[in-house]
Specification:
about 575 residues; 5-stranded mixed β-sheet; 4-stranded antiparallel β-sheet; 21 helices; 14 strands
């Protein structure tokens, strides 16, 4: 913890009442849809009728019905089944004219259908064919729901007519879209009443219907009963009280409950749930505070099933070794020491950076620890003959290697311009020679150097000052105080922003750092400050980026990021 621990912890625990998150099914809007078509495949058949019923809280709030011209004759078998004839659809609109009105009617509601893949398959195909974006609605299939809500004895099959008989619907299905949608809507709400006993009570729980949890895990959903429906950090504990997993959520109760009601496909997490016997929570004032507490808990306790942030000492840095004729190396224990490049996004980036720094500045590549005075009979490697190394191994202090080491120190966290200048021509030459692979390697190396230097400069500057900032979140304001690169305290208020800022600012005075500030925590608070919409209220000290720093070469980082994105590669951090 940063600062006077008792005061900071007291402030971090100060809360404001927040409305619960999560949408109860009683408040969820459902649109139950049914289609009539000329066949079973969207590739060979077309829609002839759309019927839909919109409900909220079990009450009908709207209906949608239209015949659709399929653009061809309706097969006699379909006419016999639905009663829809060619004469009935001859003056009906085509599907491309119907889709905008239907999609508007659907909005952001949960889409429900009996045998949903059939109906959604036709609707998706129509949207794709006519250039409309499918909204990606959450979908509930009442066939799947019926497998959870009815027994084989009462419903030996899950046909719509069978379920209508089981639940005694007021509307009888008759293979017309609106009537079938009305019957399906009645069946839906009767079945939702039943599955509430299985923990399906909120919109977020509906996904569990597709892949139900085993009963032994579903029974553990009671662990969420005492969890507050507020934002914060949750910790699953094992039978010996050990911390198994730490996470954050805007709604602790809903998130913890979801582990046992929504099918969890990750094998390690399923294993963790088998072991879990209790859940601890820490309610947090702001999302930033929750994220910071999460990384602190993970770093302190090393929960078995947390992978992200579980090993902060694995963060890679690039630095010069402590010896008379230093060389570049990847370090795991620098944590922001002066003269270090990073934190690097990966060990491979660290190695790329070292390669281009060696080539551009002439830093020695050998790993031998050299004596101050060259050994008798010492021999230089090929790099001396190529002019790529000053060879202190044979020339000692007179080699001029001290200037090389000074240039490397300046490039690590100061101005990497000499590296950029030295390699720009090489990259151009490689590209003109059609050696695109080597050109890309050099570009990536330069990008890694610049990115590491930018991060080092940004975090080092933040560590030398105290900041109080605020950012809006709907009707609320999140106020946070940062000192020495760490979160000191936060509050969430509807009014009185300046009063909150003054209280938090007082905590940044005379900070006593009694623990190393985690790299990930510094990255979290830095990103929070730099997000659009954040406003600085107080800055004690100087928070700035050097004019001649790495930031002026950010285009290299942007170019590499764009290239990776174009190739479909994604990267954390």
């Amino acid at each position: 913890m940063t600062g006077p621990s008792s005061t900071v912890e007291q402030l971090l625990h100060r809360q404001r009442s927040l409305e619960d998150f999560g949408e109860p099914l009683s408040s969820t809007t459902f649109v139950v849809v049914d289609l009539e078509t000329t066949g079973t495949s969207p590739a060979r058949a077309a829609i002839t009728e759309i019927g839909a019923v919109k409900t909220r809280g079990g009450e009908v709030v709207g209906e949608f019905q239209t015949l659709v011209d399929p653009g061809g004759p309706i097969p006699p078998m379909i006419v016999a089944l639905t009663g829809i004839t060619d004469a009935m659809v001859v003056a009906a609109p085509r599907i491309e004219a119907v889709l905008p009105a239907f999609l508007e009617f659907l909005g952001d509601a949960v889409l429900v259908a009996h045998n949903a893949p059939f109906d959604t398959g036709f609707l998706r195909a129509a949207c794709r064919e006519h250039g409309y974006r499918w909204p990606g609605s959450q979908v509930v299939d009442t066939v799947t729901l019926a497998r959870r809500a009815t027994t084989k004895e009462e419903a030996p099959n899950k046909k719509l007519s069978t379920l209508a008989r089981v639940f005694g619907t007021a509307v009888e299905p008759n293979h017309r879209a609106l009537e079938d949608a009305r019957a399906t809507s009645e069946i839906l709400h009767r079945m939702l009443e039943r599955v509430a006993a299985f923990g399906i009570t909120h919109r977020e729980d509906l996904d569990a219907l597709r892949n139900p949890m085993p009963e032994r895990l579903r029974r553990k959903a009671t662990l969420a009963d005492s969890v507050p429906a507020k934002p914060g950090v949750y910790t699953f504990r094992g039978p010996r009280g050990e911390r198994l997993y730490v996470g954050t959520s805007k709604n602790l109760r809903a998130r913890v409950k979801s582990y046992f009601t929504t099918a969890e496909q990750r094998r390690p997490i399923r294993e963790m749930l088998e072991l879990a016997v209790a859940v601890d929570t820490i309610v947090c004032a702001t999302e930033l505070e929750a994220n910071v507490r999460e990384v602190r808990l993970i770093a302190e306790h090393r929960p078995r099933y947390n992978r992200r942030s579980a090993r902060p000492e694995r963060t890679a840095w690039v630095r010069l070794t402590e010896e008379r004729y230093p060389r570049l190396s990847v370090s795991r224990a620098v944590d922001g020491a002066e003269g270090a490049l990073g934190p690097m996004r990966s060990a491979s980036d660290a190695r790329l950076a070292i390669e281009v720094l060696q080539g551009a500045l002439g830093v020695r590549t050998c790993t031998t620890r050299l004596p101050i005075a060259p050994r008798a009979g010492a021999r230089a490697c090929l790099l001396k003959d190529l002019g790529a190394c000053a060879a202190p191994c044979v020339q000692g202090a007179t080699s001029g290697y001290d200037e090389t080491a000074d240039a490397a120190r300046a490039a690590l966290t100061g101005d990497p311009s000499p590296v950029v200048a030295a390699l720009e021509d090489q990259i151009t030459e490689r590209a003109e020679a059609l050696d695109y692979e080597r050109a890309a390697e050099l570009r990536d190396g330069v990008s890694a150097v610049i990115d590491g230097a930018m991060r080092a400069q940004r975090l080092a500057s933040l560590a030398r000052c105290a900041v109080v900032a605020v950012r809006p979140d709907g009707d609320w304001w999140d106020v946070a105080a940062l000192g020495a690169g760490a979160l000191v305290g936060s509050e969430r208020v509807k009014s009185g922003v300046w009063d909150a800022a003054d209280r938090l600012r007082a905590l940044t005075h005379d900070l006593d750092i009694d623990r190393p500030v985690l790299v990930e925590e510094r990255e979290l608070v830095s990103r929070w400050l730099e997000r659009p919409g954040t406003r600085l209220l107080y800055v004690d000290g100087e928070w700035s980026s050097p004019v001649a720093g790495a930031g002026r070469h950010a285009r290299w980082v942007d170019a590499r990021r764009a290239d990776r994105s174009a190739r479909g590669e994604h990267r954390a951090g």
